[in-house]
Write a structure and sequence with these properties.
Oligomer: heterodimer
Largest sheet of chain A: 2 strands, antiparallel
Number of domains of chain B: 1
Shape of chain A: globular
Strand content of chain B: under 5%
Largest sheet of chain B: 2 strands, antiparallel
Strand content of chain A: under 5%
Helix content of chain A: over 70%
Order of helices and strands of chain B: HHHHEEHHHHHHH
Structural class of chain B: mainly alpha
Number of domains of chain A: 1
Largest interface: A-B, 41 and 44 residues
Number of strands of chain A: 2
Order of helices and strands of chain A: HHHHHHEHHHHEHHHH
Structural class of chain A: mainly alpha
Radius of gyration of chain A: 22 Å
Chain lengths: 347, 305
Amino acid sequence: MVATSEVLAFAVSLGTLYSIYVILSSSMELVYGELGLPDFAKAAFFAVGAFAAGALSVRLGAALAGIAWEGEFKLRSYYYATLVSAKVAENPLMGLVIFAVPLLVAVPCAVLLGVLASYPALRLREDYLAITLIAFSEIVRVVARNYEPLVGGTFGAGVVDVFAWLRSPWRELAMMLTSALFAFGAWLLLYRLSRSPFGRVLRAVRDDEVAAAAYGVDVARVRAWAMALGSGMAAVAGVLYAFYIGSVNPDDFTVSRTFLVVLMVTVGGRGNPKSPPLGAAVYLALDRALLFAKRFLPVPFDVNYVAYAALGVLLILFVMKKPEGLAPERPLLTVDAEATEGVTSRT
Amino acid sequence: MLDLLVGALVYSNLLALMAVGLSLALITCRVSNFAHGDFAMVGVYAAYTLSVVAGLTPYAWIPAAFAFGGLVSLLAYLLVFEPLRERTDLVTLMVVSMALDMVLRYSLHVYADLMQQWLRVYTRLFMFDDFLVEAAGSRLPGVLPASTAVVAALLASLYVLLYKTRVGVAMRAAIENPGLAEALGVSVERVFALSWFLSGALAATAGVFLPFRIMVSPDTGWSMLLPTFAAVTVGGIGSLGGSVLGAYLIGFSETVLAYQLAQVGISTAYRPLLTFAAIIATLLVYPRGLSGLWSGKGWSLRRRS
């Protein structure tokens, strides 16, 4: 039988991943769901966070611990990550610094890139904008894959275990709680924004850009703000993801990653702030269920492939049969419902 | 040097077939079809399976790959894009095509696993055996004359179909103004279905030539996709003639520039950057692309709405 500790470890690990996906899909919901801007460079902003952790955690840790660096980064980063983690085990404060610095570097970088990426939206039709952003996202990945000093190219980079000062079950739990805290913060931000005047401005721009501009909305400014927020959130998710996995690999940040996040928001319900936690749950449930099925189904091919194909089918079915998603967007009531009722009953 | 030229020409030939196919999907349903690369891989695996089972060179199975790729594309249109065509926005159509890409790509992966056990051959990272041609004192790979001839023949037939037949008139009418064409008795659905069949068939044909140059696996379609988008964008979105021109421009400049980069000591792995930069630069600076230079004249179909 499976031991209780194993089940707990599985749940804690799943909880961390779920939190990271909630942050990512919240940022997608903000930009794509509320503002209607197809931010298909999401994987790149996610990568900015992960690359910051990959490039900085080991180097910074080695500098703080006074370990002299020898050899190429791509070959030695995993080795030094272990050494630095051992130092962090004795010094929790160092772990905190190593966690905080990539976060403080990644978020401003992603915000800046996000504002930059919002400018093509002024000129381009939405589908061309999406292609432009996909091309941008692939540029980031190809550069990281080939420029080895950044995160080791195809070798990847080791990442310091910032919770090494805790013992095993508590270490993973700390990672999960940290991620959950950030996830709750990101989602709360999205929820409050969506219900605020700013959220109504976002949806006004989405539904009719010209009308919104005629009412005095500075469309370019609104887009820049939303992209800044969304990209910053994605970078936070990226940093957490790198520390959760314990390494960084540029090929982890393909367009498929963006597609998965779009899938979560679409299945959850575009335009409803409840969609990120819902969509992420549906995705992870399906993904894990198929992994379990793999254990019991003796099929002559890799079940992972079927899982991906099934996700594609799921999205197509949702767009065709239930385009509003699990949690449909709540229409804005501009006039008191009872007042209109009175008018209609009299005529 | 000769090698470089051969590589550039074959690559451009393939891009031209892919780009014209992608354009057909764009001008009929306005789908930026991310599953287009997978149609090429459907062609690869169809030709590969037939040549292993029934013998003969994969070149002989090009008609079969053409038909099979077209059929898959036609099914995609009938099952997915026709019902959604008028109902949803451009980005959602694109997301749906990404989902279709996942379905096709991973179905091909499953098929590759099964085929490996069934036929006992490598089904990933394989290449086709080519023949050599003697020309001008040097030996050239057969894929050069073969692909050039097929591309020329297919593009010429497409031109004749579009401009010299009744079906072609109906197709152009349906593309430029579906509502008006429908009112005049053209079955827009049937005409679009034909366009989609051709779209997938052209991609699948391009696919068959691919393993003569590089090792392929089900994911190769994706790496062909963005260069194809670059060709279509640079050529001018919606213009078939522009797509062909864009394909040769992208194909040659990518190959030659990658060679130049290697000369100054920069890894050729950066090669895709040129293509991606070309997409971004064209869309931001001159979104009408090359066909914008002669727009409205000659072989340039675009939807007016």
